[in-house]
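ok here's TPR-like protein:
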Amino acid sequence: MESTPPPHRPFAVPPIQRLQSPTRNRRVRHSLSESFSFGPQSLVNSSLLSAGTRSPTITRQQALALDPNASLLYTSPRFHKRTKKTASTLPPEHDVFSASQGTATVPNTQEEDEGEDLDWGPVDRMRLWRHDAMMQHLHETAAFWGDKILSWTNDPNDAFWLAQIYFMMHRYARAERILTRPFPLPDSKPPDKSVHTNGNPASQPPAFPSLASTSMYPINEQPPMWKGKGKEEVLTLDPLDEDEDASRLVDMSVACRYLAAQCLVSQGKWAEAVEMLGESNPFKGTARSGPTFANNDGGLKVEASMCHLRGVLMLKLNRTDRAKECFMEALALDVKCFDAFEHLVGGEMMTADEEWEFVQGLAYREQTPEDADFVKLIYVSRLKKYKHIEEQAEARRRLVEDYRLMDNPDILHAFADALYVQFRWQDCYTITSRILDLVVIHAPTMPLYIACMYHLPHLHSKLFMRAHEMVDREPEAAITWYAVGMWYLTSKKWGEARKYFSKTSLMDPRFAPAWIAFGHTFALEGEHDHAVTAYSTAARLFQGSHLPLMFVGMEHLQLSNLALADEALKAAHIMCNQDPLLMNELGVLAFHRREYPQAVDFFLKALSLAEMDQSSELVWTTTYVNLGTSYRKIGHLEKAKECYEKVLNIDPRMTAALSLLGIVYHMLGNLDRAIDLYHEVIHPYF
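and the structure:
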């Protein structure tokens, strides 16, 4: 949906005297749709004006609050260095509205005169209580004192921190209310000394500058006429808002708008959240936006975080393509935004080629010159392992040797993922077990760990125990019920397994292994039509993975729908042409079409890729059998015999290879040897 346009005539709210009560004479608004400002355009206009003019009314502090290229580091709880007997009621941290980096320092008590005490007012002390309670996860305590502070000060900075506390407590509606309701702007009138300053005139809070008073106006446009007699200026607004001599926090700070959007997302208000953030990045193309602009304070750009949140919203609204664009924009704006990277790569939103090209083209040097190599190596190690194998192996080696991350779970996961792609399940299980020894639950590792236990029969009992342990420890995690479903899959209880895979996908719709396993339950049960439907759904959700399309093609082969199988397998081949399993399936398709020379080429390519991956030969015995049969069809009996004999050297009891080798000897005229092989197939233990 399109965001609501800004008002026809922009307006501003000047600094006013403190209202008698934050809630008196103010219409109560319960939703964003009832506010006088909807989308982020007014905030963008303020940011543009603060960046493009040198008006004395727009201070550096205001510009910092409106800068989408900044992070939230300047809102961290830090102490101001105070002189003796001049304690201020400003919060002992950089605030989200009027902060100026570099002006605050950690107090050094050694520099203070011995025996001199700092004069802290009640508000100062309670702000310390509030932040200390936050650090100790005593959120009720932090909210209790934060609420009292806000009632005393009506300071927007205190309102922001109270909203943060409510968000941590999962009280999203209360946090949203604070951020989106009209809020009185502090004025220069001194508060009650007995309450705020402990009787110290030097500790009066300065007036909070109105961020909206000038920044919402075009340079050549005059503000509307003010009514009043000097002492109490009131802005005449629209009749519906004539009692609103205030401004919302979301219209004064990018950080507040981002937090408000997070609250809406957490409440499931997707449309309102999109309206809060905007359908697209409103800062794109402005003077402060772009991948080449580094973050001045070294943190993460709020603009990138907003793009990531917009991508999450698009996923909620089933707009996958738009979500992909948002995540790519977020990571391009700030290479440190790993959440966006995880959605793109871990969420199977990009093909192997797209991943490589995108990660190689990020502006590492421009954004984080000191750590550019490290960030790039970390990202390269997490990409799909079908292509650029040597480059990824070099990245893993450097992370271990140069950066000493040999026991880091994420680096170990990169090694395990490479082994799993090579079908080296025992080696993969060894590394994943090591990861789980270091950390109890590692989300990217758990699917690999569970899959290895499924593929290795002697670990089925361990899978049973692990699933029970996860149910007891993490019953709310989707991976838990995926493990339960995999246990039932090992027991060939397809219906029970399907039930738990369905539960997993409901708990986490973006968990790709559950969707694939859900389709496997139908395929193993012989319900090929239902399997095609399940795999097709997975292909739609995870457009960067070739596996769902490959499985669709395999099911169509089972149904002898060669045209549909060809369409699905070729689409998978376009996405990934380095998967040996896909090459084998393309060979099977060519064999069914009686294109035997082409089938031989595909089977040889599959075995070549498997050898390059250092895969176990036992996994590829079926491909050797397929290759031998294709050779036999075109009359190359000696080559066919070599293939079957190689299979029997790997697995002497494989009945398919024994019978087919008997046919080859029969065709070669060696009837005695053929009869012996036929007997061995019929009576394998004699």
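+1. The two ends are 73 Å apart (CA to CA).
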